[in-house]
UniProtKB/TrEMBL annotation:
GO molecular function list: dioxygenase activity
Organism from which the protein derives: Lentibacillus salicampi
This protein's record includes keyword Nucleotide-binding: no
Name of the protein in its database record: Ring-cleaving dioxygenase
Keywords, comma-separated and alphabetical: Dioxygenase, Oxidoreductase
């Protein structure tokens, strides 16, 4: 039982159309699934990823049309990273973000890697991270019809940053229950705060890290549009997920039990600081119910929602996601 890295990150948006434009036209990611929030079928769940939505490349969004502003703070997933192949790609991105009026901080260094911190139109806290020195989990493949050149495009999710006030219980879950090991640290960009600690799992590298930030100067985060809902970690198979469910139960951690998301199977639980973790299987994947050439072009519903298609489609705002072929 060894978690393989980041599986996906799920965040909140108040505007699916604006969100779709930014992540496909500006960031060049592929919409690999246009479906519904299975816990609230009246709103979209959009999955952006590499060419086919390989595990470790999915950045997903629940649409909550009336979501308020996010007030950043502790007990949160406070940063999502997106991987690019090398340092040269970051030069391209610095220019591209500027040309498209995207708020960014330019190329800087963090933990020995070159990065760019930037924000989407809803102030989602994002970082482009270079894989120039990466020797861990491999990235995905840029979609051939991306709006960004293949050698510059986003190839997956990088480190996820957690912000807490008391790190001890979160560290205990990461290292004693999950399969993370502490592998380094780097200075906090905030004066007077502790160093940010780095935890890795599986093959390690940019696709398998959690960065833990301790802040004593912030209240608890009030989530809204631009906040992150949960992070999911990769489990190899459903059989292995069953073992994880047993382990979490033995630790007496309240959890969801097995949840069938159709495209993968999942387990959800909150670590002691209130951050929602998911363990998700690598398969069966997003081509289960759609032609790989046409992923994300129409509303996909898992079989257990198909008999409600007419009712569901009537409640959703139209969102045209067909791309020219």
């Amino acid at each position: 039982m060894n978690l393989k890295g980041i599986h996906h990150v799920s965040a909140l948006t108040a505007n699916a159309e604006q969100n779709y434009h930014f992540y496909t036209d500006i960031l060049g990611m592929r919409l690999v699934k246009k479906t519904i929030n299975q816990d609230d079928p009246s709103v979209y769940h959009l999955f952006y990823a590499d060419e086919v939505g390989n595990p470790g490349t999915d950045f997903t969004f629940f649409e909550i049309p009336r979501a308020g502003h996010t007030y950043p703070g502790i007990s949160s997933i406070s940063g999502t990273s997106l991987r690019v192949q090398n340092d040269d790609a970051l030069v391209y991105w610095e220019n591209r973000l500027t040309e498209n009026g995207v708020d960014h901080d330019g190329i800087t260094k963090q933990g020995g890697r070159q990065i760019i911190h930037f924000r989407d139109p809803e102030d989602q806290r994002l970082t482009l991270v270079s894989d120039e020195t990466n020797a861990g989990v491999a990235g995905g493949n840029v979609w051939e019809r991306s709006s960004v050149p293949a050698d510059k495009g986003i190839i997956g999710l990088g480190p996820v940053k957690l912000t807490v006030q008391d790190p001890a219980p979160t560290v205990k879950v990461l290292t004693d229950i999950l399969t993370f090991q502490e592998t380094g640290d780097y200075p906090s960009p905030v004066s007077g705060q502790d160093d940010i600690r780095v935890f890795s799992t599986g093959e390690g590298g940019t696709g398998a890290e959690v960065h833990l930030e301790v802040r004593h100067d912030l209240p608890k985060e009030r989530p809204g549009r631009g906040s992150v809902h949960h992070v999911a970690f990769r489990v190899d198979s459903e059989d292995e997920l069953a073992k994880w469910i047993d382990r979490i139960k033995k630790e007496r951690i309240p959890n969801s039990g097995l949840v069938d998301r159709f495209y993968f199977k999942s387990l959800y639980f909150r670590e002691p600081n209130g951050i929602l973790f998911e363990l998700a299987t690598d398969g069966p994947g997003f081509a289960t119910d759609e032609d790989p050439d046409h992923l994300g072009e129409s509303l996909a519903l898992p079989p257990f929602f198909e008999d409600r298609r007419e009712e569901i489609e009537a409640k959703l705002n139209p969102l045209d996601t067909k791309r020219p072929h």
